[in-house]
Write a structure and sequence with these properties.
The complex is a heterotrimer of chains A (307), B (968) and C (207). Chain A is an all-alpha fold and 307 residues long. Chain A has 10 helices and 1 strand; from the N terminus they run H-H-H-H-H-H-H-E-H-H-H. Chain A has helices at residues 5-29, 36-58, 78-101, 108-129, 140-164, 168-198, 205-209, 228-232, 239-267, 271-294, and one strand spanning 216-220. Chain C has 5 helices and 11 strands. Classes of the chains: A mainly alpha (307), B alpha/beta (968), C alpha+beta (207). The structure holds ligand MGD (2 copies), iron/sulfur cluster (5 copies) and molybdenum atom.
Chain lengths: 307, 968, 207
């Protein structure tokens, strides 16, 4: 597939927001003391990230003015569900922050935000995982990697904020989790990449065309300068670029952040947390690019040769 | 509100998928004839508020029966092409040709320039006006113009197209593939298609092939490449280019050797039994004849020849005695005439000719396994002779014998430029015609079928002018500029044997060049060989690009100046085109033509009608939309010029205008009594089809009848027309033929022998100049034979080991569809297709850039692997590559950046001793497009970058956009 | 009723008549206009509902060349429909045609991702998803002569390689052709049940 930056930003930013909210909600629900200011700032950050994500998603639409229509088919479409859940999640985060700011501390706002965050992960991941013929996506790994990376990014950001604002109890409770989440996310991603590398496409030119003689190859795709099908479903990057992106994704997305977190945990310094956030952000963007680029759509069988 | 909400989210669609976007506009359907290619299908043009909305095939049209092709369906985009010419243009003073700097002028000014110039030429030396036309189908009118002007220098595209096919078959069976005849796939069981990719008759052939396959027929394709039609062949037989003649000779070897021939047919309907003089004297190799029964044999008099009757052991007149009941004309043996002259039946000579042409011999030449050749020959023989069947159609032959049934010979062949476009094509096509003849599959059900006005005499009774005295100032030619010479007497040469025509047609260089040699004109005119021109008028031909060999050289020649006076060597070039082609840039005067939807046009019996097997068909175009800008139908321009120049056929005795306009001309002009451009609804009341008085309502009647007129011959006139009494009489009466004698198949072509005898110095008549004697002796063989294409002899085939050929893409017409927004998306650039082994051996990757190089030039191109090409051959789509900026394409468009034109590698002339001679068939002058030998080498630099500048920046022909100048 | 095209690869010569006739009919019809970009410049591209591709199988000299037209297959279980968030993609109950509602479509391209066949093309000009409509605005148009109530591509095809009809009606030409000529669907592994079928090559061997 050709990775679209709108979708990359949508999923990474909103995933981070979800991670922050989940971290805070779990902390709140398990009674970790947090200052009001910290909670408002962290939730505010999450809300801003999610709103930017939402805004980014509009760039993916050919007809953004009709975006509201996307809520119509929630009964069948994961995309439609995401379209409903994402604003709901933002609303829940904002509501929670507002309640915190007003001094209310009921358990239901974090619980609601937590549930919506998780639901949003399910929706987002299922958008991809439900496309059964895109084997790279149609696997629980999609949900696992989406939620783990989101959680890792969210925890790291929450901890960076906590460190800065000297939220020691939270940092004590969440600091190690950030490290664990980052490592787990990295492991999950490596495993999923290994799985993808070993995948054998079920569709072949033979099933795609029904031609039985062998070997079979395409001579012409029927147009000489490409079409939507060659723009949308091919990343057009060289193998070397893909390899480099993969390296960046794994190193910047997981290895370096984990090292920074460990450093921060070991030294108690604030800077390494932010360093972690700063390297992780492009790393996760690269990782998400890879997620799309790696998916081999069966339609590509029909679009292999200009002649 | 709620309702609105429910509607938005409900499952009922908001957008009505069946609603037309413009419900209230005026709708109209008009029928006319397509001209997105020369196939000429019937179309329905659906108009909305006077604008073209949709074009589909006309289901009531006999040619295409409702189907259409990719080009036809994209016809609407021709109307929107930015490359349209909309105003007459004059080259700006002081600018170079090819720079495309023009100023728009009025039609009055254009006429004034032309009339002044042409009148002057006509009054002094009419030869200095040359008029050549490309892919048009109105040669009846353009030819008339040239003839009335009095210039011999006229021809259409046939010479660079497929004249080998036309001449090779017409000189053998009196008709040919092309518009003149085709395979009867309705009744065939075996269909052998040779060297055809798309063909002229494209839609009908597609309809027929698919119906044939569905009926269970077997389809074999012989072609170095498997594309298009060959793709759906049951069997593909790859062959080395230029070697088909060897294949046919070997098949004849098998068929004749194994007695799989239609002997009865040969004896009655062909010259196989006729006795050939073998005395080494002045008549050596000509048919023996009885002077009392007519003049000596020139091929036009079948009734004075002799045969040997085995039954009586006597020499008899071939007709009618030789075919009388009880006679057994010998096909074999050697005999002596009463005066002792040694003779032999021509079939004996054919037998001897094919005897050494074994399948093994042919296999080494063609690359086809010998066993395959034998098997295919046997299959043909078996289907023709053993799977024959009778149609219950009684007919009477030319000698009065009544045949209670008509015998089918269900092997149909079809061939086109794969045979024609080689310099050995004439003899190859002859070999194929002889092969078809020995199987008896000529105008027989299931075989080759003629289309009216064919069959013609062998040799057709159209003599060209043959002496320089026939060209006089202010005088029309009293013979056609084009014809079919039957002997050296009919050549268009001067007393010293030099050519009269600028293109050297009908000279000793290319004696049977029935369609002229358009591809020679520019080179010869620039070299003043045999003389210089004053004005060259080009209509509908892209002579600065794809219909020219040595493209770069020709482009330079178009700009060549005389060192003495600095004048252009071709002083004045007029181009009539509808689009901003490469050629337009080189014009001094541009005449903007209409598109096919904007004009009247005729597909005339006097020219190239669209006849069907069962009878003649002609058709017209009528305008369905008004002309764009100031463009004018070229037909109108011709009629106007002819009138202003006061050509006798166009003005009354007092010099006043005879014809109001082109439609009026079409209705009222009669070259012979009762015969006009259109044959439908003749007679004052429209009740005289085919021949009759002019009918003032003729156009109306065509318009009411789908723009087409079809005449079904009675069943008993539909077959065996070479010898069909009823048909021959009918054809004479309707003016299609001058005489009603039968058309005996010329297995042995004695007309060719007359040229050979002259070259051998025998007979005392006209003789070729010394440097051409050997050539004429060699190629004017009365029996078919195979020789390697001429280019091979002058090429180092080790250095240039590959053959390079082109194919017609089905979705593009030559150069003229790159301005079509839709067709362009299918083929915006072309690749060189190469067998993977050949490509790897040359060190070029699939998709890599490479040089393709011949001894004459080279271009850079991208390569594609293909297993569907004979490994010694490389090919590409024809005419996709364009000069940068031509056709109003943006600079750097795919066509010029990634596409390429093979013509850059093809030589216009080849060395002949000390001199050079056209790279054409030595008999017919057919351009040898497919003879070029090449090698491929990796392109230096970034091999995969598609952004490499095309190798020929100096052929940048960016013409000033006529639209821009018009808008200013 | 399930209307569909059945494409006979045994006679298709790859002429592209179905490609441009489709473009022409639909660009001026209910589904249009179909956008073209860079129409006269480098890399010309545009929306087409139907493409004809070419494949080679085997090795020289036993090579087959196969022309392969492809448009929306009007799947009986179309994966492109349920994923559409707006309901713009739908399958008509009355004739099984899968359509896009251009007034609802938001151009999210998700349906195109969900089609394994690459049968949908986003119109870059209008920014809505488009695809073969089976010429729904021709085939039910009572104003047309009965013979004309066929898809534009079917009428155009010079080799009659495109059969059109109701595959659920066992008597129809298409159902018979599928039965008798081993008609097959594309990518059967995804159980999309394409309504369009293809008829394979048949070789009439030398005796
Ligand atoms: N390498 C190679 N070269 C070849 C061939 C090949 O197979 N390989 N084939 C050869 C053959 S067979 C042929 S016939 C020639 C064809 O060569 P050309 O006859 O030159 O054919 P086109 O390229 O179609 O160019 C015809 C011109 O007609 C113009 N035109 C189109 N419509 C109209 C109209 O309505 N009115 C007017 N006035 N002009 C119009 C176009 O703009 C174009 O400039 O090419 C030959 N050249
Ligand atoms: N779509 C479309 N239709 C056209 C045209 C067009 O430009 N586009 N042009 C029209 C014109 S002007 C013409 S002349 C006709 C030409 O119609 P065709 O004769 O069908 O055209 P070509 O593409 O020249 O096809 C020649 C075929 O011969 C093969 N060939 C080449 N050399 C040899 C050989 O030595 N032996 C054998 N057996 N095969 C060989 C080539 O591989 C190719 O398949 O098409 C007409 N129809
Ligand atoms: S074959 Fe030629 S005449 Fe017929 S529809 Fe196509 S372009 Fe028009
Ligand atoms: S072919 Fe693709 S677009 Fe058409 S119905 Fe099937 S899944 Fe949907
Ligand atoms: S692009 Fe349009 S039709 Fe496709 S899923 Fe999105 S809204 Fe639905
Ligand atoms: S059915 Fe209509 S929309 Fe579909 S491919 Fe054919 S012409 Fe195009
Ligand atoms: S129109 Fe018919 S023959 Fe031509 S490409 Fe389409 S399906 Fe094949
Ligand atoms: Mo031609």
């Amino acid at each position: 597939m050709n990775p679209a930056f709108s979708v990359i930003f949508l999923t990474t930013l909103s995933g981070t927001a979800q991670g922050v909210v989940v971290a805070l909600a779990l902390a709140a629900l398990s009674g970790v003391p947090m200052s009001r200011g910290y909670q408002v700032i962290a939730l505010g950050c999450a809300a801003v990230l999610a709103i930017v994500a939402l805004a980014a998603s509009f760039f993916h639409l050919g007809r953004p003015e009709r975006a509201w229509r996307a809520a119509a088919r929630w009964r069948t479409s994961w995309l439609s569900r995401e379209v409903i859940v994402l604003p709901a999640f933002i609303a829940a985060a904002v509501l929670w922050a507002w309640l915190v700011a007003r001094g209310t501390s009921a358990p239901w706002p974090p619980l609601l935000a937590l549930l919506l965050a998780v639901a949003l992960w399910v929706c987002t991941a299922m958008i991809y995982a439900c496309l059964r013929f895109i084997a790279e996506w149609a696997h629980p790994f999609t949900l696992v990697t989406f939620s783990f990376t989101g959680l890792a990014a969210g925890l790291t950001l929450a901890c960076a904020l906590a460190a800065t604002l000297a939220e020691t109890p939270l940092l004590a409770a969440a600091g190690a989790s950030a490290l664990v989440a980052t490592l787990l996310a990295g492991v999950a991603r490596v495993l999923s990449l290994r799985r993808n590398a070993a995948l054998k496409p079920r569709s072949t030119l033979r099933t795609a065309t029904g031609i039985t003689a062998t070997p079979i190859r395409q001579i012409s795709m029927g147009m000489s300068a490409g079409a939507f099908n060659t723009r949308e479903f091919f990343h057009h990057a060289t193998a070397a670029t893909v390899r480099n992106v993969k390296l960046i994704a794994l190193v910047a997305g997981f290895v370096l952040p984990a090292a920074c977190i460990a450093w921060a945990l070991a030294t108690g310094a604030i800077a390494p947390w932010w360093l972690a956030v700063l390297v992780q952000a492009p790393g996760l963007v690269a990782d998400r690019w890879l997620f799309f680029a790696q998916a081999r759509h069966p339609q590509n069988l029909y679009y292999q040769r200009v002649a | 509100m709620l309702n609105w909400f429910a509607r938005q989210f409900g499952s009922a669609p908001l957008h009505d998928p069946t609603a037309t976007p413009a419900p209230d506009v005026q709708r109209d359907v008009k029928t006319t004839t397509c001209y997105m290619c020369a196939c000429r299908c019937g179309i329905r043009v659906h108009l909305e508020a006077g604008k073209v909305r949709y074009i589909d095939g006309n289901p009531d049209h006999p040619l295409n029966k409702g189907v259409i092709c990719a080009k036809g369906s994209a016809g609407i985009m021709k109307q929107y092409s930015p490359a349209r010419l909309t105003q007459p243009l004059l080259r700006k003073p002081g600018t170079e040709r090819g720079a495309g700097q023009f100023e728009p002028i009025s039609w009055e000014r254009a006429y004034a320039i032309l009339v002044e110039r042409l009148a002057r030429i006509r009054a002094t030396d009419p030869r200095k006006f040359a008029f050549f036309t490309g892919r048009d189908q109105m040669q009846a009118l353009t030819g008339l113009f040239a003839r009335q002007f009095g210039t011999p220098n006229y021809a259409a595209h046939g010479g660079f197209c497929s004249v080998n096919m036309a001449a090779g078959m017409i000189y053998t069976i009196g008709g040919s593939f092309w518009e003149f005849g085709g395979p009867d796939l309705d009744r065939a069981k075996l269909f052998v298609m040779i060297g055809t990719a798309e063909d002229h008759h494209s839609n009908p052939l597609k309809i027929a092939i698919s119906a044939f396959k569905r009926r269970g027929g077997r389809f074999v394709s012989i072609n170095p490449v498997r594309t298009g039609y060959s793709a759906i062949a049951d069997e593909w037989i790859p062959i080395k280019p230029g070697t088909d003649g060897a294949l046919f000779m070997a098949m004849l070897h098998v068929l004749i050797g194994e007695e799989r021939v239609d002997r009865a047919f040969l004896a009655r309907y062909t010259n196989a039994p006729q006795l050939v003089v073998l005395d080494g004297g002045e008549r050596d190799g000509l048919f023996a004849f009885d002077p009392a029964a007519g003049p000596p044999g020139d091929g036009r008099n079948p009734h004075n020849k002799l045969v040997y009757d085995k039954a009586s052991g006597r020499i008899l007149h071939a007709y009618p005695e030789g075919i009388a009941d009880g006679c057994e004309p010998a096909l074999e043996g050697r005999y002596a005439l009463d005066d002792g002259t040694p003779v032999a039946p021509s079939f004996q000579l054919l037998r001897e000719r094919v005897a050494p042409c074994t399948p093994e011999w042919a296999s080494a030449i063609t690359g086809i396994p010998a066993a395959r050749i034998v098997a295919l020959a046997r299959e043909m023989g078996d289907v023709a002779l053993n799977q024959a069947f009778e149609l219950p159609i009684e007919w009477t032959d030319a000698w009065g014998k009544v045949h209670p049934t008509t015998t089918a010979r269900p092997v149909a062949f079809h061939a086109m430029r794969g045979l024609a476009a080689h310099s050995n094509g004439f003899q190859t096509v002859r070999a194929l015609s002889v092969l078809m003849s020995v199987l008896g599959t000529i105008d027989a059900p299931g075989g080759f079928r003629h289309k009216a006005p064919y069959p013609r005499h062998i040799v057709p009774n159209y003599r060209a002018f043959n002496s320089p005295e026939m060209i006089q100032p202010n005088t029309p030619l009293n013979a056609a500029p084009l014809g079919f010479p039957a002997s050296p007497d009919e050549l268009a040469i001067n007393a010293d044997g030099s050519p009269i025509r600028i293109d050297h047609a009908f000279s000793w260089e290319h004696p049977l060049s029935a369609h002229g040699l358009m591809h020679n004109v520019i080179t010869n005119a620039v070299n003043g060989d045999p003389y210089r021109l004053d004005t060259l008028m080009i209509f509908m031909a892209n002579m600065a690009w794809n219909s020219t060999m040595n493209t770069e050289g020709v482009r330079a020649m178009l700009n060549a100046r005389d060192p003495d006076d600095g004048e252009y060597r071709i002083p004045f070039i007029v181009v009539a085109d509808a689009f901003q082609s490469e050629m337009v840039a080189f014009a001094d005067l541009v005449l903007p033509d209409t598109t096919y939807l904007e004009r009247h046009d005729v597909m005339s019996m006097l020219d190239r009608p669209i006849s069907e097997f069962d009878g003649p068909v002609d058709s017209v175009r009528v305008p369905v939309v008004p002309p764009l800008g100031e463009c004018r139908p070229f037909q109108e321009v011709i009629v106007e010029l002819a009138t202003r120049l006061k050509f006798p056929a166009f003005v009354n005795a007092d010099g006043s205008r005879k014809f109001r306009d082109y439609p009026d001309f079409v209705v009222n002009f009669q070259p012979a009594p009762g015969i006009g451009f259109l044959m439908g609804w003749r007679g004052k009341d429209g009740e005289s089809p085919l021949r009759g008085e002019p009918n003032p309502d003729q156009w109306q009647r065509y318009a009411e009848n789908n723009c087409v007129f079809q005449y079904h011959l009675p069943r008993d006139m539909q077959f065996m027309r070479n010898w069909n009494r009823a048909y021959l009489d009918f054809a004479k009466e309707k003016g299609w033929r001058q005489r009603n004698d039968p058309v005996q198949l010329a297995l042995y072509q004695d007309s060719l022998q007359t040229f050979r005898l002259a070259a051998e110095g025998k007979g005392g008549g006209r003789q070729p100049p010394a440097h051409l004697r050997e050539r004429v002796v060699k190629y004017f063989d009365p029996l078919p034979f195979w020789y390697p294409p001429l280019e091979e002899a002058v090429t180092d085939t080790e250095a240039f080991p590959l053959n390079a050929i082109t194919q017609r893409p089905m979705a593009m017409y030559h150069s003229w569809d790159s301005q079509n927004a839709w067709l362009r998306q299918i083929h915006s650039h072309n690749y060189l297709f190469v067998h993977p082994k050949t490509a790897r051996a040359a060190g070029i990757a699939d998709g890599g850039w490479c040089w393709i190089e011949s001894p004459w030039g080279r271009v850079r191109c991208m390569l594609r692997d293909s297993e569907a090409v004979e490994p010694g051959t490389v090919w590409t789509w024809n005419a996709i590559g364009k000069a940068d900026g031509a056709w109003h394409l943006a600079p750097g468009a795919d066509e010029s950046r990634k596409g390429f034109l093979l013509n850059h590698l093809i030589a216009d002339t080849l060395p002949l001793g000390e001199r050079r001679i056209s790279n054409s068939d030595p008999v017919t002058g057919q351009a040898g497009w497919y003879d070029v030998r090449v090698r491929i080498t990796p392109a230096e630099g970034d091999e995969t970058s598609p952004h490499v500048q095309w190798a020929r920046p100096d052929v940048d022909a960016r013409a000033a956009a006529p639209h821009d100048s018009a808008e200013k | 009723m399930q209307l569909a095209l059945v494409i006979d690869l045994n006679v298709c010569v790859g002429c592209h008549a179905c490609v441009t006739s489709c473009k022409e009919w639909n660009t001026g019809g209910a589904a249009g206009p179909l956008t073209d970009q860079h129409a006269y410049a480098a890399d010309p591209t545009g929306t087409f509902f139907n493409r004809v591709q070419t494949y080679e199988a085997g090795t020289f000299p036993d090579t087959e060349t196969i022309h392969f037209p492809k448009s929306c297959l009007h799947c009986e279980d179309p994966p492109c429909v349920p994923v559409c968030p707006t309901g713009a993609s739908y399958k008509r109950k009355e004739d099984g045609i899968v359509l896009v509602d251009y007034d609802k479509c938001i151009g999210c391209k998700y349906c195109a991702w969900a089609c394994p066949y690459g049968a949908r093309e986003l119109d870059e000009g209008r920014q809505v998803m488009t695809k073969c409509t089976l010429c729904v605005d021709r085939i039910h148009d009572e104003a047309l002569a009965p013979d004309d109530r066929k898809p534009a591509c079917v009428k155009a095809c010079p080799t009659n390689a495109r059969l059109f009809g109701d595959i659920h009606d066992p008597q129809s030409d298409v159902a018979q052709a599928i039965r008798e000529r081993d008609g097959y669907p594309l990518m059967p592994e995804w159980d999309t049940k394409p309504a369009n079928h293809y008829l394979p090559r048949r070789v009439n061997k030398a005796p």
